[in-house]
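Retry 2 of 3 after timeout on previous attempt. Resubmitting structure tokens to design endpoint.
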């Protein structure tokens, strides 16, 4: 979050981008999906709300959302430093603040030959042995 913003609670719900997203959601909640799918620039909207990567296809075009919604979601992710938190998770940093430990989400999905270090130790073999 921005310097000084949301510091009282430390919650994303106190961020300006969260509040902007809530206001936007309120403004568009009564739009009809059929209208979003067919009106005006709907082709642009529908293409922009679809993505594929590595055999996975995502289609958000059938949701009550607009291109502005997407922009506001990206603003929220940036303000919440999602990319930085992903890097911290991959580096084995202690991002679980409650339990004061690293998280193993990436190691759980890793191939057995991949390496994820936590406190200098590769945890992938440990995770694969425990998940059998």
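Retry 2 succeeded. Sequence:
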């Amino acid at each position: 979050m921005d310097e000084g913003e949301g510091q009282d609670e430390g919650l994303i719900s106190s961020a300006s981008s969260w509040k902007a997203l809530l206001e936007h959601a309120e403004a568009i909640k009564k739009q009809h999906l059929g209208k979003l799918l067919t009106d005006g620039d709907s082709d642009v909207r529908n293409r922009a709300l679809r993505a594929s990567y590595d055999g996975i296809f995502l289609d958000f075009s059938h949701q009550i959302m607009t291109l502005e919604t997407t922009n506001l979601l990206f603003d929220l992710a940036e303000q919440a430093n999602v990319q930085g938190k992903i890097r911290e998770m991959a580096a084995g940093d202690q991002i679980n603040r409650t339990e004061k430990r690293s998280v193993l989400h990436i190691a759980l999905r890793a191939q057995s030959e991949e390496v994820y270090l936590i406190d200098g130790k590769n945890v992938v073999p440990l995770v694969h042995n425990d998940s059998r």
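Attempt log closed. The chain is about 45% helix and 10% strand.
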